[in-house]
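Hello, quick one for you while I still have it in my head. Could you read through the record and tell me how the tokens relate to the sequence? No rush at all, and the record is pasted right below.
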Amino acid sequence: MELLQLRYFKLIAEEENMTKVAEKLHISQSALSKTIRTLEADLGYKLFDRVGRNIILNENGKIFLKYVKRNFQSLEDAQKELHDFNTIVQNEITLCVQAGLSMLPDIISGFNRKHPDIKFNITQKQLLNDLTISKYDFIIAVADIDEIPGKNTITLLEEELQLACALTHPLAARKSVDLSEVAVEPFISLPSYTKLRHTTDYYCQQAGFKPSILLECYDSNTILELVKNGMGICFLPKYTWKQINYEGIAIVNISEPKCSRRIILTWDADHYITKSAECFRDYIVDFFNHVSQSKQ
């Protein structure tokens, strides 16, 4: 069994298209097919089912792919660790930000002052699968309601969820409300695929209603502008949206049920963590500790 065979197998398993993979590798399709047949012969099991002109990963292939991906991840981690061992620092951190985006400028600029040689590659993706998670050193995310932190997860912040409305709205005169009292109100909300939306939908369900979503928007600034203009109300994270201008908006506490969310830092447990990534992990934990202490 050769590394080249495993590489070809992984590419075909991910694409499920022999022609595309052959074009990508700049080899003939017959040579690629022969390599896979040799691999299957070495293993003693078929890895793909061939349906007409299509090639589909079968259950044997799915089992084998799991271990092949681990091996390639180990090789990638070995390269990173060798680089760490032979240089002062690996100077890039890949970060996926799903929550706390308005705090990111303070986090990155503060870290940069301490470590000016370390660069960042930052993306925003709400939907990740097993193939993409390993591409990032860290993911800043919202934990699921019933999620139990694992060895590869740190809780950065637990924050209360409040309601925001226009100053002219009847709710603006209230300090707090039961969530059930706003069951008929139109909501301006994040899209349904976001973790915060999952959380707020859960609390609405606990309060006995399904929220009436007037408009979905991914940008928190736009959501609050629409609320200020009287189009509806919205859920408001108490701390992580603080950098946004609240002028013209009333903030109302939710007395029942108690609504909150957890911001977490997570990473691939099988992924090698570079020295620069370790520095960032320590820094961001300390940053949010200061945020929590300042709000007490």
